Amino acid sequence: MATNGIKIAIVGGGLAGLAAAMKIAEAGHAVDLFSIVPVKRSHSVCAQGGINGAVNTKGEGDSTWEHFDDTVYGGDFLANQPPAKAMCEMAPSIIYLFDRMGVPFSRTAEGLLDFRRFGGTKHHRTAFAGASTGQQLLYALDEQVRRHEAAGKVKKYEHWEVLSLILDDHQVCRGLTAMNLQTLEIKAFPADAVIMATGGPGLIYGKSTNSMVCTGSAVSACYQQGAKYANGEFIQVHPTSIPGEDKLRLMSESARGEGGRVWVPRQKGEQRAPSAIPEKERWYFLEEKYPAYGNLVPRDIATREIFQVCLDGMGVSGENQVFLDVTHIPADVLDRKLGAILEIYEMFVGDDPHHVPMRIFPGVHYSMGGLWVDFNQRTNISGLLAAGECDYSIHGANRLGANSLVSCVYGGFIAAPAAIEWATNVPHNGSDGARVYESELQRQEEINAALIKQSGTENQYVLHQEMGKWMTDNVTVVRYNEKLKATDQKLLELIDRYQHISINDSNLWATMALPHARHLKNMLDLARVITLGALNRNESRGAHYKPDFPERDDENWLKTTIAEYSGEGPVFSYEPVDVSLIPPRKRDYSKGKKT
Amino acid sequence: MSAHLRTSSSTSRVPSKTVEIHIRRRANPDAPQTWERFEIPYRPNLNIISCLMEIQQNPVTKEGTRTTPPVWQMNCLEQVCGICTMVINGRARQSCSALVDNLEQPITLEPMSKFPNVRDLVVDRSQMFDHLRRVHAWVELDGTHDLGPGPRMDQEDVQERYAYSRCMTCGCCLEACPQYEDDNYIGPQAIAQVRLFNMHPTGKMNRDERLEGIMEDDGITNCGNAQNCVKACPMNIPLTKAIYEENRETVIYGLFGWLKR
Ligand SMILES: Cc1cc2nc3c(=O)[nH]c(=O)nc-3n(C[C@H](O)[C@H](O)[C@H](O)COP(=O)(O)OP(=O)(O)OC[C@H]3O[C@@H](n4cnc5c(N)ncnc54)[C@H](O)[C@@H]3O)c2cc1C
Ligand code: SF4
Ligand code: SF4
Ligand code: FES
Hints:
Helix content of chain B: 25-40%
Bound molecules: flavin-adenine dinucleotide, iron/sulfur cluster, FE2/S2 (inorganic) cluster
Distance between the termini of chain B: 48 Å
CATH class of the largest domain in chain A: Alpha Beta
Distance between the termini of chain A: 51 Å
CATH topology of the largest domain in chain B: Fumarate Reductase Iron-sulfur Protein, Chain B, domain 2
Number of strands of chain B: 7
Structural class of chain B: alpha+beta
CATH topology of the largest domain in chain A: FAD/NAD(P)-binding domain
Mean pLDDT of chain A: 94
Number of helices of chain B: 9
Number of domains of chain A: 3
Strand order of the largest sheet of chain A: 13-12-17-16-14-15
Oligomer: heterodimer
Strand content of chain A: 15-25%
């Protein structure tokens, strides 16, 4: 295939990575696509609720500007506004493109795309395919990329894990190193530009709603090689997840979008079955406190309210749980619009949500923070770009439901031409080319060799659990400076104990232990960025809430946190936010939004 | 609720204090398979993945011998990525959605038998993705630039397509199919994807290429109509309906297709 001689490496085959791959291949260039799991099994399949785009098919006067305003307002004005606006403007065409690819979006009576409501907006703006929208969108891109693969433009490296970037003496990205997850062989892959699209870091919290490959490890490696990491402290805790032994399974916001109601019994220690509790003895606390948005207030607010209700001992059966009730919605509507997610609940809990209110509690869900990028998805390292959940742009201090899928595709669509432009114009790296590849390869091989050789009494999985517990207890919904400091001390202790783990598998063929050990180190480094970023920010904004500093403080903190790696830990600096389009105003969801 | 949910809860049994799990192991593709027994403390609501995680953290057999941790694959943990599929008590299914409370003990875990065994419970299913390439399981777009919305569609047609579009390439259907052995038959999963795209107004325009993909020696005529596949599919995909419809299409194409050339 004629490819004009440039090659772009994409790390990650979720929505963002595949969107970029499709665009680059379509433009006639060669793509090397790396993914830990076959791309069709990427975390994006988990997204249930839908994808936002202001198409205004319901005649509600929706517009891309309104979508933009909801996005920056929901994000508590921490997002740079130009890219958020550009995303909202592109959103309808993204949904139409998926429609043309054959995504089975739900339809109206006229055969048009149907839209539902999601949190943080008063418009029906969310297109959906049953209750497995992410799966359907990912498959559509997977199919298009397979088409380019069949035509020889995309080469997939599945079951390969990217370990690091290859940087030349001028800090220009010249490719990457990756490890074959069966043989553990490490290879250097030259590329004219690299796009990171590796998704979120939920596993830092041990249990989260994320898939098991969402460790943030690759992004942490980039950070350790000099990439800036922005707004790390902004971690979204989803209000409604189903607690489980191995993970917190999400109950999508669409359950509330379709009319689901959150409540607890008014009576502490209530013994009756939920169906036996009369309407007036139920406390619909979100509807009561936020009459304008009710159950559809943004996530950070819903999460804190549920958390507080349980803290006050009002949780169902005195435990950390509240009811999410859809039993009043007709069964055929539930099956058509929410079938898949209600099945998940029944499958893992055993109760049928058609008849019994679900029991839910908040769970770590999404990282608004990520690699710093400019408005063209370029990181501060020349030749390195980023897109999707692993970059920090668009969502500010809090992401609105159904805005992630669209931001992933948008990011991929912007990163692709920017990568092509760089790759076409970058001077080739001449005679010292081979050396930079060899020395990075050697560095990575040495890390593996050292891990395999070292023996100690620490267990890598126990360290992971300890990190997860500390992070979940102290760096989620409610944050106190004393506890954040203690958490950082704990992380330092874990980094120290990490030196004494022994890889718990003597058979290295296709082992899970060595890759996990490498993730663990990278997660610990990123956990410090999140924790210290939170410690520094003495205000409350979006998902970041400190009872000791309960107000948003624009004068001092309307700025982006930037962390840079040093041997002694992250070094922080701050950058102004571009609020040139909509002046910041106070967020107040008890009233309708004024623009 | 869907049929597979009902069947999974019908075998519930009194929980014991421990969970006994027998795992069929293989160190690498050239090594022999062996069985190892493990025992872990019982807790309510355990799924197979949680059991494996517990064994992984401290891999000691029931007999007290230290061993290598069993290796398996997992990602979504909510039965939507398909990666964690293995044979549990003789039936291929997802280990993330297999709850201990619903399983007879001792629980046996084995890798799927129809795919090359990499190590322990991990198999290589790349042939399924190769099949998707062969049957052109995609819509041929003119380009990804903005051309407005796609064709209008009836919600009923959308729902029929949605059912096929939920296939997570897990391989349960192939594991259950008596005709599928050593990649000798393209199998129900790929045929259902042909159905998915042949039903789409734009996808239809490339129907012939897809039909050719399932008309070779290892094609659709290998199906013996045993119907095991449809019972095994965790996503309740109407596989036998797809096979029936595509069989019809290939016959018509076989009879009249030459007219178009
Ligand atoms: C349960 C759940 C439900 C959600 N529902 C919605 C919703 O309804 N609407 C919405 O807008 N958003 C939703 N989200 C958020 C959204 O799903 C994610 O933010 C989004 O899918 C992220 O996509 P991505 O392309 O950035 O990365 P992912 O889809 O996470 O893909 C990451 C890719 O990177 C690869 N990778 C990672 N590390 C490496 C490495 N070192 N080397 C090689 N490859 C690597 C992985 O294999 C994978 O292919 C939901 C999230 C969850 C958890
Ligand atoms: S119906 Fe056909 S494809 Fe399905 S199990 Fe039987 S032989 Fe296999
Ligand atoms: S058709 Fe069903 S059983 Fe077969 S691969 Fe798809 S989801 Fe799995
Ligand atoms: S882990 Fe994805 S289906 Fe089980």
